[in-house]
Design a protein that fits this description.
Length: about 160
C-alpha cells in the first residue's frame, strides 16, 4: 500500500481535477476505479470526462457495460473494488474501507474544500486511515497547483 492521498478541491471543478489525477494514474500503469455515491452524478462525470482536454484522451467507462473488465478507468457506485484495480479514487463522499486502502497501490479521496460536510467527512476519513496505521497525504490547490500540506507516515510494520 503506497498510501491514501486526500485532495481538497478549492479552485478546480471535480471533473478537471479528476481528469488530471486519472491521467497521472494511467501514466503509472494503474487500472483505476472511480467510486461515487450516485449513478446519475457518475453519468454526468462520464460525459464531462469524454468532453475533456482536446490534447488528450482519457479512456474510461461506466460500470455495467460489456467491457468493464477492459476499462482502464471504471466509474462505479459499487461497494467492491473491481478486479485488477490498483488505484481507487473516491468522489462525492463515497466510502473507502481501511481494508481496501491496505490492499491497493493508492487511494485518492477528492473532496470539495468549500463544503463543510465534505470537510467533516474527509477529516473523519483521515482519522480512520491514520488510526489504522496507513500513510496519508493531504494536498490542497494553491495558486492553481497541488501543494502537499500535510503527511503522516505509515506505522512501522
Amino acid at each position: 500500500m503506497a498510501g491514501v492521498c486526500f485532495y481538497r478541491l478549492a479552485q478546480s471543478p471535480l471533473e478537471v481535477a479528476l481528469s488530471r489525477l486519472l491521467t497521472r494514474a494511467l501514466a503509472t500503469g494503474w487500472r483505476v476505479a472511480v467510486r461515487g455515491r450516485d449513478a446519475g452524478r457518475l453519468a454526468w462525470l462520464d460525459e464531462r470526462l469524454w468532453l475533456g482536454a482536446e490534447d488528450g484522451f482519457l479512456p474510461h467507462g461506466l460500470e455495467g457495460g460489456p467491457q468493464d473488465a477492459d476499462q482502464p478507468v471504471l466509474l462505479t457506485t459499487g461497494p467492491q473494488v473491481p478486479p485488477g484495480v490498483a488505484c481507487l479514487m473516491s468522489v462525492d463522499g463515497a466510502g473507502v474501507s481501511v481494508a481496501e486502502a491496505t490492499a491497493l497501490q493508492r487511494v485518492c479521496i477528492l473532496f470539495d474544500g468549500n463544503d463543510p460536510a465534505a470537510l467533516t467527512l474527509a477529516r473523519q476519513q483521515w482519522c480512520d486511515v491514520t488510526a489504522a496505521g496507513l500513510g496519508a497525504q493531504y494536498w490542497s490547490e494553491d495558486g492553481g497547483r497541488w501543494e502537499k500540506k500535510q503527511e503522516k507516515a505509515a506505522a512501522p510494520v
